[in-house]
Amino acid sequence: MKPTLQRNWLARNSSSNASFHSRVLSKRSLALVIAAASLAMSGCGSDDDDDNDAVTAELNKAFNCSASDTSGQRVVCIGSADDLTDSKVQDDLIAALATAQSGDTFVLPQGRYNFTSTIEFNGLVDNTVVSHLTFRGAGMDKTIIDVSGASADGFLFNNTDHLIFEDFGVYESNNNALKVTKSNGVIMRRVAAVWETDYQSTNGAYGLYPVETSNVLIEDSYVKGSADAGIYVGQSDKIVVRNNVAEKNVAGIEIENSTLADVYGNRAVGNTGGVLVFDLPIGNGKYGSGVRVFDNHIEANNAPNFANVGDFAGGVHIVPPGTGVIILSTSDVEIYNNVIKDHQTTAIALTSYLLPDDQVASAPNADVGGLDGNDATPAVNSYGDIHPYANALLDGWSPLVRNIHIRDNAISVAAGIDNPQGSLIEDIVKGYQLFHAFYPDITAGQTTVPHILYDGIGELLTNTPNPGGAGETILQAVTGGINQVAAALDANGLESDGRQINMALFTTYNGDGVCQQNNGIDDQTLFAASVFETTPGAHTFDDSGSPQAKIQQYGMDTTMVGRVMSDPNGVMGCPATPFDGTPVTVTFDQQSYGCTTDDSDSSSCAL
Amino acid sequence: MKTYLICIASAAMLSACGGSSGGSSGDAGQPTTPTTPTTPTTPVTGQCQSSAKSVQWDKVIAADAQNLADYQLFSNPCDPTQNPSARGLAYDLSVPLFTDYASKYRFVFIPPDKKAQYHASETFDFPVGTVITKTFTMPADTSQRGIDHERLLETRLLIKREGGWIARPYVWNEQGTEAQWDLTGENLVIDDLKHLNESFNFTYAVPNQNSCTTCHQFNPNGDDDAVDGVDPTPAFFRPIGPKARYLNSDYDYGQGPENQLQKWLAEGLLEGLPASNTDIDSTPEFSDSTALADITASAQLLQDTSKAWLDINCGHCHRKEGQASNTAFRVDWNIPWLGNEQYHGACAVAVSGAGESSIIIIPGDADNSLLYQRMHTQEPGDAMPPIGRNVIHQEGTALVKAWIDAMDPSLCSL
């Protein structure tokens, strides 16, 4: 019944903050690490001055709007020629929404206006469904709505289809600047979401924030200063994010638990992490794939991580400062033709969810209904009792990265930019520093960690036979075990959904892992390597069954030295037909957007 | 388009202006009405006489009266807390939604010869023409409630039209003589609200009319049945409180406590009620005066009371059919706790934007549970619920804390 997992490194204790690697580095190595020259881990990796943008100080108020009563395409003026007080503008907008009709355009006046309440709309006016609303200002630097007086979000829309936001800015939100949920058809165009004080953890969380939406276009917009993600598209489908600027956020642009997204032509500069593609175990059936990140300019994302620290393994506070692109537990991603330069930790980091939380590989609990008679084993009465991630796994989530194709990127690192950091990879960084100390022939000027850094541990456990098993791999043992217990719960009437993990997600890797090719780098050797081997060798696991990083094996395996900093033909080699993403089309009424349609002639889309 | 009246001079700084007419300083950064609960509403004689009234049903359906009094829902137009007109009945909930220690007075008015249809687990189905009123008042001291000691703040109307429910917020002037329809919401300053041995100073926010839908939307099947982004069963607007489990409790209509559902039946306001009360759901009763020790004495009572409190305070959004369905916290009463602990947030990781903690409920450790932290803060952006709470509900947070602290930590230790 219960899968045999003799490798006792499969932790059974929840230690939410211990990263996988801290156990992997033995005490002996750690002592050496600590003895090694301590690096000044200054948190300030930005050469930008911290002056607040004062462009908004002198912004003249101006009313320029002609109302129209044409049914289905009304124009509603907000404010009036003789009254542009804050309260007039705010109350006009609220009242206009309370009496909105489908097809309305709300024209916001020029100037900076302080609002004291969230502008919200939930798709109903007197229980009549209202859609097709446009909010238009005089320009993202001309119409500024300062929502610091509102207790939560600046703008909050849900259940409203076909929304267009254009040519205005939302400043200083206490929570999110512009949030849209459960809507089909969302366009954010030339919209700014700004927190004027740099690197302040009390800044709001998300700037432009569509979540649980479909057919989303975000273009030509500007986000700065969010304490989480500037542009964040979550749990959504059919997304184009293009030609935006994201700077000085924790995460510049983030696509999370979303399907079919094209991210291109953007500038992500001066954030903690530039572009993130995450797939988190959120348990609501929405898991991501099919993201393309191309022709972006991703530079010097070396800001300190000023996110609010939670203990969520996958939270944005884990983003290592100085990372260009991060792929976390997502599959089917293509990263190509980007300029990725001057990152002090690594240009591209790819990791399974086992790096932030090794409990993914913990053994399932099979004590269905508490029938084993042992009070020390917690009874399993529901799917969630089986394993810390059972609900998400049964829901369709995979902790692995597969089908990642990294090609034709121009990676460069300026002299002197080599200061890897980040609590998530602290032990990895220490390991590499140790390695460099032992191998002084790693030339000066080379980065400490590889430019493309892959954890490898998820793949390793998917490729390693379970000791004493019947040929299944370790992760197959875990997931297969969860399936057995889930089936027993159903059989015993404790659950009724009949849910099972899709085992196809956990087949042995076969050319469908992380692959990189044709990535150029100025004046240096491109390093692309995994922290762990991805196929088990003689010293992959130590005597106690814990996996050993490649760095830990160099005393035992003479071939390991070259493989620590790069995997020339192995781990990241590309198969004959590497993953090739599909262009995304966003449909908004009769209009369509993306590389297949309005942008088909653009140089980005020709790549 | 505008729905504002000209403010009477003495009320120039008052709420009903909505900031749209002259007399407003135009500074939206300042809450408008300085209220002083220590001087309760003192009705001006003449304006506030009681007389026989009858509900103006046609005006209710039109739902465009500038003055609340035009609907003639109460015999005294200045007192929406008692003496409803014919076909009106007061009701109370076994566990109320907390709103900054305001008192609440609820009435349902159902047109003659029509009845609400009983439902076992969701809001009753009310006939067209029904109007529900909920009046919010603020005492000077929470130990002395009742209209004689309180200031009228707002009266919210939910009206059932052919197309469904609509919302109409009315805001009272400082004298308590008139309530005007207010689309845009108001900020009312509350100075020195005494509660036990504390004093609260805060801004009471009357929600704008758009905000009503935030809590009052209900999406059958959630988004699970959406095809390519289009939901065949879209969200609609409906009341939250009038459910069997909250009305299956006693209320004193003047002749001693009576079961509310039986009263609705006797008054001809309800049909379809099961004959036996054992077939009708109920929640434990909880109010600010409930002694926590009486609840914690029983583990089952503690769990049921906490679940009921969370259901009425959070469950309209935090359920599959609510606005917060994309979060990892769901708390609808109809889903049992046992066997669905993670569904309710136990050991569950928040989807995004967590505060100090990112685990919603850590069994045995309320202080480090995000749920408790969200209830126990006034920080904008973190505080939950996001509407109608500018003060921490001490009694509610103490209840939920006791419940989480009493949970077995092994629930999450696998």
From TrEMBL, chain A:
Pfam families: Beta_helix. It comes from the Bacteria. The lineage of its organism: Bacteria, Pseudomonadati, Pseudomonadota, Gammaproteobacteria, Oceanospirillales. Gene3D superfamilies: Single-stranded right-handed beta-helix, Pectin lyase-like. This is Right handed beta helix domain-containing protein. Residues 147-278 form the Right handed beta helix domain.
UniProtKB/TrEMBL annotation, chain B:
Residues 22-48 are annotated as: Disordered. Keywords: Heme, Iron, Metal-binding, Signal. It comes from the Bacteria. It holds the Pfam family PSCyt1. Residues 1-22 form the signal peptide. InterPro entries: Cyt_c-like_dom, Cyt_c_Planctomycete-type, SO_2930-like_C. Residues 191-306 form the Cytochrome c domain. Residues 27-43 have a biased composition (Low complexity). GO terms for molecular function: electron transfer activity; heme binding; metal ion binding. Coiled coil: none annotated. NCBIfam families: chp_HNE_0200. This is Cytochrome c domain-containing protein.
